[in-house]
Fold this sequence. Notes:
The complex is a heterodimer of chains A (271) and B (315).
Chain A: H1 2-21, E1 26-31, E2 34-36, E3 44-45, E4 50-51, E5 58-60, H2 62-79, E6 81-88, H3 94-103, E7 107-112, H4 118-129, E8 136-140, H5 151-158, E9 163-173, E10 176-183, E11 186-193, E12 196-200, H6 212-220, E13 223-227, E14 235-241, E15 250-251, H7 258-266
Parallel strand pairs in A: 1-6, 1-8, 6-7, 7-13, 8-12, 9-12
Antiparallel strand pairs in A: 2-5, 3-4, 9-10, 10-11
Chain B: E1 2-6, H1 16-32, E2 35-41, H2 46-50, E3 56-60, H3 68-82, E4 84-90, H4 93-106, E5 109-114, E6 124-128, E7 133-139, E8 144-148, E9 163-166, E10 177-182, E11 195-199, H5 210-218, E12 222-225, H6 227-231, E13 252-256, H7 262-268, E14 273-278, E15 291-294, H8 297-314
Amino acid sequence: MKAGSLAMAFTYRLVTFAARNVPHSMKILVLISHVPDTTARIAFTNDNTAYDTSGIQFIVNPYDEWYALVRALELKEAQGGTVTTITVGGAETDPTIRKALAIGADDAVRVDTAPKDGHDVAAQVAAFAKDKAYDLILAGKETIDHNGSQVGPMLAELLDLPFISLAAKLDVADGKATAERDVRGDVEVVECALPLVVSCAKGMAEQRIPNMRGIMAARTKPLQVIPAAATEALTSTVKFELPPPKQAVKMIPAEEAGKLIELLHSEAKVI
Amino acid sequence: MSVIVFADTRGEKVAKSALETLTYGRKLASKDGASLTLVTFGDASVDKLAALDANKVVVARNIGDADSQQLTRLVADVATKEGATWIVFSHDDTGKAVAPRVGAKLNAGEVAGAITLPNDQGLIKRNVFSGKAQAWVELKTPVKVISLLPNSIPVEAATGTAAVEEYSGDLGTAKVTVKEVRKAGEGIPLPEAEVVVSAGRGMKGPENWGMVEELAKELHAATACSRPVSDMDWRPHHEHVGQTGIAIRPNLYIAIGISGAIQHLAGVNGSKVIAVINTDPEAPFFKAADYGIVGDAFEVLPKLIEAAKKLNAER
Lengths: 271, 315
């Protein structure tokens, strides 16, 4: 009996020891945008009021995928937890969401509406996330179509959370996030207690190519479609335009390369 | 009625981007017959602040720019008290974090990265699709927030005799704190540079960057690089311009040994003048260039350095 209780006590100690050292398992939300491929043709329809999506391949916004999602997965793999993605858009975004699931997210949420503007995206995500107690909400630093850098900070404000922008590195320990930001040419190291919103930039993680197992698993992972909250548009994009075509390039023979400097000074007046 | 401009006034000289926002705010204020209030933070002297072109300056002394919640409370509080109709930021590292928050807090529409003043219909232009197109945006709310893309409008220098008021409201404690700042070293910060000398794989190896740096020095330029070069660690990551690096819009971008993939162009297509040096006459970058030289970087660069030295000696 004596030996047995000793063993039990020993086991008990081991368990408490382990419990104390198990990092807090994190609940992470990653914002995923559905955007035209980086090399997609840019053209507009309906009298230049809408992007022409015909024949266009859509992808996960690279900043959301390469940096936010992959870093979320790395944190989960190291510390335990869940990674949920959220996308605001119609059913046409489902293949993009499945791609994020194939890369490794556990489950996905789609708010079923065509977002009116950046604020609308933030408001829809906030309406979903407000009572879910996420420890960490990650977004790419911007989308490659609207380039607004708006949704992360707007979401942080709507949820009354702190926000770290342009993080190039992110670590979490003891309930605290530490991030490195490339700002004004310097590297700034900042710290903030969870929960918070982080916008992710280059450097945070390496791109992950989904493998066949991931792609198969993604088919059956939960993708919850929820109705949109009632919102009002604060802005509206009235029309698009393409930049005027560039004038033909002026070529200078290599032997007379120095002439370039003269032209930049006297003709272009930029030096 | 007032127009609010939020700007960073720290440092020896007031940054060009701050002066641009003041010029932008002054133009909005003149159009509406409104007064212009500058909201700022940090330790700039009262004399320095008073001399800026604003009717009033509100400065919060004891906060930095790491915590966007504090700055949001500051700007939103002043804007509400003054009944502001426009709130103008620079679309820089701080403005990108604070302007959208202020918009969300005040339920005000925001144009991120504006490149023009409002036109006759009140529409404001901004870049979309990584500079490959532009959009005209309408702000539908009574309070309107703008973040102005640096280098989009010329500074109209004006001096003022503004009353400087120290902000005394409660901004709460900072949740985001700065632990350490690692200085990148000397040189011109890339996003602020008016001239940028950039090089790519055509330079063959990091040991050959001396010529690039020398040309940059002669032209008072910042140095930049393409993605492969930063991925191979030939150059630091903060020099990488392009879709996944940083986007810049200098007056002059000189690209040496960079082919000009669409992802690279997305980071530099806002440049006013582009000069391209490449051995391959079919390099796509020539289509986006104003000036081009087909030639080997190792032959062309010494000629450019020599010409730049000559130009500097003459002026």
